[in-house]
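Morning F.,

Quick status update on the modeling queue. The single chain you submitted on Monday has been processed. Sequence for confirmation:
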Amino acid sequence: MIKRSSAFAALVGGLLLAVLPIVYAQNSTEDGSTITYPASYFSAYNPLTVNDMLDRVPGISLILQQGFDSIRFDGPVRGLGSSSQILIDGKRLAGKANEARSQLDRISADQVASIEIIRGTSSNLDVQNTGQLVNIILREAQSRSSITTEVSATHFFDGEVEPGGSIAWSGQNGRLSYLLSGGLKTGYRHTESFETSFNGDFSANDTRDDDRYVDLKTYSLNSNLAYALTDSDRIAFNLLYNKADPPQSLFRTVTDFNAATPVLRFERESTPATSENWEFGGDYEHGFENGDRFKFLFIINDKKNHATRERFISTEPGGAETKNLFLETNSRYREKIIRGSYTLSLTGSQGLELGIEAAQTTQDSGLRLGLPTAAAGSPEFGGLTPIAFPNAFSTVEEIRYEPFAIHNWQINRRMSLESSLVAEYSEIEQSGDVNNRRDFDFIKPKLDFRFDISNALQFRASLGKVVSQLSFADFSRATNESDDDQDTVAGNPELVPEESLQTEIGLDYRLPNDGGALNVRAFYYDFDNKIGKIDISPSATNLQSTNGNVGPARAFGLISNVSIRLGFLGLPDALVTAALTVQDAKIRNELYSAESDRRFRPYDRGDYRLGFRHDLPALGLNYGINYNARIEGNRTPFDIDNQIYIDIPSNLSVFVEKVGFGGLTYRFEGSNLEDSEACSERRRFDGYLRDGILKEVEFNCSRLGMQFVFKVRGTF
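Structure tokens below.
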């Protein structure tokens, strides 16, 4: 019998193959490597924001998802870098959290003159094009202004209804362009889970029935201001502020079967928490008469998190409680980044950008653990006994400098080559419970070649060295979010960055007459100093692990996307999308086995997506359905003494949107309509995992339930 995920993956693959004859049966009429969609193209669809416009562009999901360069799979982007997938009026925004992609729901559609899909690369672009770029061209006017609003209500499966909304004011007044916005977003989550565990001899151990609540509300303020000082000088500023109070609570019933008669225990956890972050960025650009440009950007950001987790136990519902855990965490992450460059027009076909980026990154971490013991308690530890462990309080600071050179060469009308060379010099210093300082230097070359086989079909290939951004939170002791049986994990002050040589080749085809897009991409990454779990056990009876550099690894795969209009079926305003990712990875870790390779995240097997969208402009109506899932067997993380097999649930969602009363847009969304469960099997071992002496098996399934959202949106 074919498993459901395999059947759906085969369906997606079949659809991708079925589209090929349709694609190549048509003649290309595209001219050049930039596709332009004027505002009039979208007028029949009554869009309110830039996102509404982009939803109607075939193949846009691929661009917004990740771009050609898959290094984004590997975690946070290091510094500012020179890449971005979204430009506004040909310019990048000087922001990380407050970058251009986050603005797409805030810019009113009536402010847009056109949208460009840029498939080529050039020194005239404000960034390196690692795949395809979306450039949003705003209308030029002496004065324009509009306000976009949204109010929403989200209904959760437990009956909870949470409000949300946003308001954005965008426009232009002479040389000043502005965007001011504020919003409230719910992150409420109620998770029901049930776990059954068995001892190593498969006798019943216990059951755990959990109800976990996260009552998260995020308040945000954004502003983006740009001013043309002269025809050759432009200055811009960006500001972001987010405030959230994400308290968590847990109610658990444990039934222990190891005694002669089952024993009940009731646990309650309370985790008040606060989170706050802000970011301020700016950029200045000057254009010279000979075509040269000078650019300067800066960003300052700050993020603080605090949480106090306390657990109470009782022997009967509502009975007297005893506290048995106090766990307090504090963290603060700060960045200061500056980047300056000068772009020279060497010839009509060549350009060179020279510059330097400097950054200071600081991570402060603190952790307090209190447990009930015979020793005296402390008010600072919730009345419990302080548990001392090393590396609980830490400050990690990195000072980094990156001089760079980027050369663009339009070899001929159909071929281009972008080459870059970045030298990285950094110093990482840790102070607090552990004092350590290390210096690093790396050379990071990269080549990006493009060949327009025809006006519609493009071949791309890239080869480059990538150095990962370390998570400074791994340097000191932290809470363990993935295993309830282990409250904290040790830090590792000796971590070094991962290095990888990354190769990609791909084909991008756009059908004539805006009929759709097809993209196929293959990648191969060769890693060194890959980070995984390492053994730091004090003894064979006290096993401990932490994140450390394991050694070499490799990842490879094939990513295919298709987006096609159904005009050949008489439905020109219907769009079908499909995507299939098949990938694998190999790493050897002695915690698991000294003789066999294992997959590692996020390159474990793959995923697939299907989507359908249909616009009915005459009725002011559009609707759609989306389905996404991962190939089974995706997640199998392991630690020194346990391994878990995770079945990530699929997600079926639908939406219906209608322009109605008062010229407002009314939208209904439903997600997780299959009410899927996330299930896992964890195997715990007596001693090392590699020795295979089974101690316990846990079967856990959890559900978030279906969600329904009703939105009302309008532009004034």
